[in-house]
Input
Amino acid sequence: DVAASPTQPGVVLAGIAPGGSWGGTMYRSTDDGATWAPVPDLANISVHDIEYAPDGTVYAATQDAIWTSSDDGATWAHHVLGVVDPNNDEVFSIAIDPSNAQTIWAGVTDAGGGQAVNLIRSIDGGATWQDHTPPHSAPMIGSDIAIDPSDSNTVIAVFRGDFGGGEVWVTTNGGDIWNDRSAG
Output
């Protein structure tokens, strides 16, 4: 994934995840991508998604939960998710509510069927997380999330299985009730 800072001209972050798995890293450029340097805090940690909040706070979905930076990616802090097994806390997707940057959604791995919490939400900027996983018949990987820019209670989450299959779920009330839209 790649993302440019909304607050610091020239700063670009690129996350690498070899084969979608483990052992990647984050790279940072301060000259619009002309040169790159690895970010030491995320060395050998695969980065699946990078999202900037309007204030410049960066959220990275990684093989090791979520990391944040308040200095445009120069340094990073690790966040324990709390609602998932700390040994199975790989995050594949992050979405920041366009109307309230304190509300963040994250798609979590199913860890080979052993992690039933696959979609989480924070309403305090990532300090705490709550399970908002739709009622799957079995755990699935939370692979992408979209928030309606005109109605942040409407969220679309897509999931995939370890060996195929997938689902699409939609909520119109901020994740309390989900509707399966996978058919067709």
Remarks:
- Residues 69 and 75 are 6 Å apart (CA to CA).
- The first strand starts at residue 2 and ends at 4.
- The mean pLDDT is 92.
- The two ends are 29 Å apart (CA to CA).
